[in-house]
C-alpha cells in the first residue's frame, strides 16, 4: 500500500503513459483510495519496454527479461497483482565475455566491471598482460578527487587503465544503459562506485573489495540476485493493468495526451484517439512518458521543466530473437549468454541463451533453442538502419564466430526499441532535480519513470511509488530508492 494519507484524496487522477511506471503509479493510486484513475497510453500496447510474446510456439520476452530481486519494488508489485507463483530465478547465471577472439568467463568479484580482486581478472584472459600490469598502479597513485560528478569511464580509466573500461566496464554498463561509459554519470548510474570514489580510500580496488564484502554480508541469505516471470516479465504490466481495472481504474490504449492545462480546480488533459478528441478534467496528473513527450506537454504550464527535458538523449537498440531446432545444432550453448565489449568491433553487443537461462523457456519446447542478440547503443546506431533480414544475418554471423552456430533458425523476430533508453550523462541527477523543482510549483502534478530514478524495473516502480505517495499526501520518495541501478 502507499503511504498513510494525510490530506484530501484527489477524486480523479490522469496517468499519462502505460508503461510499467505509469501502470504502477495507477495501481498505487487506486489501492491508495483514489476513486477514479484514468491511464492514457498512446500506442496500441501496454507495457512499454516490457513485452512478452512467442516465437516458434515458445513464450519469450521481447523486451526486458529480468528484474533485480534485491530491491523490493518489482517483486512486491508482482506478488500484489497475482504473479507470486510465477516468479523464477534464472536456471543459470554464468555469463561470459566474447572478447579477444574467444568466450571468456566473466570475472567474479566486481562492481559494474571494476574489480575488487585481480586474481579472477587475470585468470579470465579478458585483459592483456600490459593491461594487467597497469591495474596495480591504483594502489600507488594519489587519491583521485571527485567533487560532484564524473563519467564512469574517465574515473575508472584514470585509476585502473583503459583496458578495464573497454573490456569490463563498457559491456556491463552498456547492457543496462546501451550507452558509452565515457559519457555516463557515475553518480547517477553507479551510485555505490560514486560513494567509494568520494570515500577516504586512496585505492579504488580496495574500496570496491570492501564494498563487495559488506554487500556479501548483507545479502548472505537474500536469495537470487535476479528474477524472471514464467511466461515473461512482459506479463507484469498486463497483470497490473488487469488489477487496476478490477479495482475500478480505466486503462486506455490508442489514446494520446495532446495538451495539458491548469484549471481553477486542477488540470485539463486534451486527448486524441481514433474515435475522436476528448477533454478530461482531473484533480491531478502523473506524467510517465519519455522526455520529448513530457517536454511537449509541460511547455505551456512548466516551461522551465520543458526546457530541461527537451535535450535529454535516448539510445535506440534492436533485439533479434531466434529459434533453432536443437537437432540442427552442432554445439549446444551453455551458460546464460555473453556480453561483447564494443572495442572488439562486433555487430552484436550481447547474446542471451534464453532456453538455457530460463527454465520456463526451455521447458516450453525441449526440442527448440531460443536465443537473442542485441544490436545498437548510444552513438553507434548505424546498424539499426538495416532491415530485419540484415540484422538476423549479421547476428547469425557473429554467433557463428562466437559459439560455432551455423544452423538456420526456424523462426526469427526483430524487435526495435527506437529511443528506448534514456541516457544518464554527467550532471543528470542535477537535471532531474531541476525538473522536479519546476514541477513542485504546480500542485497536483508529478513525473515518474526511467528518466528520473533509474532504468531498471524496480527503479521505475519505485519512481511511480514516489509520484503516487506525493499525490496521496505521503512523503515523496517513499519506496523510490536512490540512484539508478536495476
From TrEMBL:
Its cofactor is FAD. SUPFAM superfamilies: FAD-linked reductases, C-terminal domain, FAD/NAD(P)-binding domain. Its EC number is 1.3.3.15. Signal peptide: none annotated. Residues 20-472 form the Amine oxidase domain. Pfam families: Amino_oxidase. It is found in: Cytoplasm. It comes from the Bacteria. It catalyses: coproporphyrinogen III + 3 O2 = coproporphyrin III + 3 H2O2. Pathway: Porphyrin-containing compound metabolism; protoheme biosynthesis. Gene3D superfamilies: FAD/NAD(P)-binding domain, protoporphyrinogen ix oxidase, domain 3, Protoporphyrinogen oxidase, mitochondrial, domain 2. Keywords: Cytoplasm, FAD, Flavoprotein, Heme biosynthesis, Oxidoreductase. Belongs to the protoporphyrinogen/coproporphyrinogen oxidase family. Coproporphyrinogen III oxidase subfamily. Involved in coproporphyrin-dependent heme b biosynthesis. Catalyzes the oxidation of coproporphyrinogen III to coproporphyrin III. PANTHER family: PROTOPORPHYRINOGEN OXIDASE. This is Coproporphyrinogen III oxidase. It comes from Streptomyces thermolineatus.
Amino acid at each position: 500500500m502507499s503511504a498513510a494519507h494525510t490530506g484530501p484524496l484527489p477524486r480523479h487522477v490522469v496517468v499519462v503513459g502505460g508503461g510499467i511506471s505509469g501502470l504502477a503509479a495507477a495501481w498505487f493510486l487506486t489501492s491508495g483510495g483514489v476513486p477514479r484513475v484514468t491511464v492514457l497510453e498512446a500506442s496500441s500496447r501496454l507495457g512499454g519496454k516490457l513485452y512478452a510474446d512467442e516465437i516458434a510456439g515458445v513464450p519469450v520476452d521481447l523486451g526486458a527479461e529480468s528484474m533485480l530481486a534485491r530491491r523490493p519494488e518489482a517483486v512486491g508489485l508482482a506478488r500484489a497483482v497475482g504473479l507470486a507463483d510465477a516468479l523464477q530465478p534464472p536456471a543459470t547465471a554464468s555469463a561470459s565475455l566474447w572478447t579477444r577472439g574467444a568466450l571468456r568467463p566473466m570475472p567474479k568479484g566486481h562492481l559494474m566491471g571494476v574489480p575488487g580482486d585481480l586474481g579472477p581478472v587475470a585468470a579470465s584472459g579478458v585483459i592483456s598482460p600490459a593491461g594487467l600490469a597497469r591495474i596495480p598502479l591504483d594502489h600507488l597513485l594519489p587519491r583521485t578527487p571527485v567533487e560532484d560528478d564524473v563519467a564512469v569511464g574517465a574515473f575508472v580509466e584514470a585509476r585502473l587503465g583503459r583496458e578495464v573500461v573497454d573490456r569490463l566496464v563498457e559491456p556491463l554498463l552498456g547492457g543496462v544503459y546501451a550507452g558509452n561509459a565515457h559519457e555516463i554519470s557515475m553518480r547517477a548510474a553507479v551510485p555505490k562506485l560514486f560513494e567509494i570514489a568520494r570515500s577516504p580510500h586512496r585505492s579504488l580496488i580496495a574500496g570496491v573489495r570492501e564494498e563487495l564484502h559488506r554487500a556479501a554480508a548483507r545479502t548472505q541469505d537474500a536469495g537470487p540476485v535476479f528474477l524472471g516471470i514464467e511466461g515473461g516479465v512482459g506479463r507484469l504490466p498486463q497483470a497490473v493493468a488487469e488489477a487496476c481495472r478490477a479495482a475500478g481504474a480505466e486503462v486506455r490504449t490508442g489514446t494520446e495526451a495532446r495538451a495539458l492545462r491548469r484549471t481553477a480546480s486542477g488540470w485539463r488533459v486534451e486527448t486524441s484517439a481514433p474515435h475522436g478528441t476528448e477533454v478530461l478534467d482531473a484533480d491531478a496528473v502523473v506524467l510517465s512518458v519519455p522526455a520529448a513527450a513530457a517536454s511537449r506537454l509541460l511547455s505551456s504550464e512548466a516551461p522551465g521543466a520543458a526546457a530541461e527535458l527537451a535535450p535529454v538523449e535516448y539510445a535506440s537498440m534492436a533485439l533479434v530473437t531466434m529459434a533453432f531446432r536443437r537437432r540442427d545444432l552442432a554445439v549446444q550453448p551453455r551458460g546464460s549468454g555473453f556480453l561483447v565489449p564494443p572495442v572488439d568491433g562486433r555487430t552484436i553487443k550481447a547474446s542471451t541463451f534464453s532456453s538455457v537461462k530460463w527454465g520456463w523457456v526451455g521447458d516450453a519446447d525441449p526440442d527448440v533453442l531460443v536465443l537473442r542478440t542485441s544490436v545498437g547503443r548510444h552513438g553507434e546506431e548505424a546498424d539499426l538502419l538495416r532491415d530485419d533480414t540484415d540484422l538476423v544475418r549479421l547476428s547469425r554471423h557473429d554467433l557463428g564466430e562466437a559459439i560455432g552456430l551455423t544452423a538456420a533458425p526456424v523462426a526469427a523476430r526483430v524487435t526495435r526499441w527506437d529511443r528506448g533508453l534514456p541516457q544518464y550523462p554527467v550532471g543528470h541527477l542535477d537535471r532531474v532535480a531541476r525538473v522536479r523543482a519546476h514541477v513542485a510549483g504546480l500542485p497536483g502534478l508529478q513525473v515518474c519513470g526511467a528518466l528520473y530514478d533509474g532504468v531498471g524495473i524496480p527503479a521505475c516502480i519505485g519512481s511511480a511509488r514516489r509520484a503516487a505517495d506525493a499525490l496521496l499526501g505521503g512523503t515523496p520518495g517513499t519506496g523510490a530508492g536512490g540512484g539508478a541501478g536495476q
